[in-house]
Design goal:
Helix content is 73%, strand content 0%. It has 155 residues and is an all-alpha fold. α1 runs antiparallel to α2 and α3 packs across α4 (122-143).
Length: 155
């Protein structure tokens, strides 16, 4: 088992376990559940369970696999630049969500991501971004009744 695999398993298990503990802690407090149908604890318990189970399966697959010499694949300069652009797009999204709200900032984020990964032509980029934003809004806001920020510009 390589050092990277140990770190990956540790992160999956620790974040999953932390989500489980926090979900159980918040689920026991009745005064927090104000407007969220899932409640503050159930969602964390679901995510924590998924992460913990994934970590356990990943650990088992690593332990049961034959040890082979790992081949190091070099990362090209263009790919490193794309990774930096993605980090920049995530930073813009994080800063923009409190100002413009979920819908607008998510649409802008998808446009940036599609530009970074060279989705062409431009109208396909706009259409994909629009439908991706609508789909995520329907899943999280409409179906799961989660509350997302509207932004200080729209309050």
């Amino acid at each position: 088992m390589s050092r990277i695999q140990i770190i990956e398993v540790f992160l999956l298990l620790s974040v999953g376990f932390a989500n489980l503990v926090e979900g159980i802690r918040l689920g026991r407090r009745a005064d927090i559940q104000l407007y969220d149908v899932l409640g503050p604890g159930r969602y964390l318990i679901i995510v924590g369970s998924a992460l913990t189970i994934s970590g356990i399966f990943y650990l088992c697959s690593i332990l049961l696999k034959k040890v082979e010499k790992e081949e190091i694949i070099p990362i090209s300069k263009a790919m490193r630049i794309k990774m930096l652009y993605v980090i920049g797009a995530l930073s813009v999204y994080t800063l923009m969500i409190s100002l413009a709200g979920y819908s607008i900032s998510t649409g802008v984020f998808f446009i940036l991501i599609h530009l970074i990964f060279e989705v062409k032509p431009w109208y396909k980029n706009i259409i994909l971004s629009f439908f991706s934003t609508i789909f995520l809004w329907l899943v999280f806001v409409y179906w799961l009744h989660m509350v997302f920020p509207r932004g200080i510009l729209f309050q």
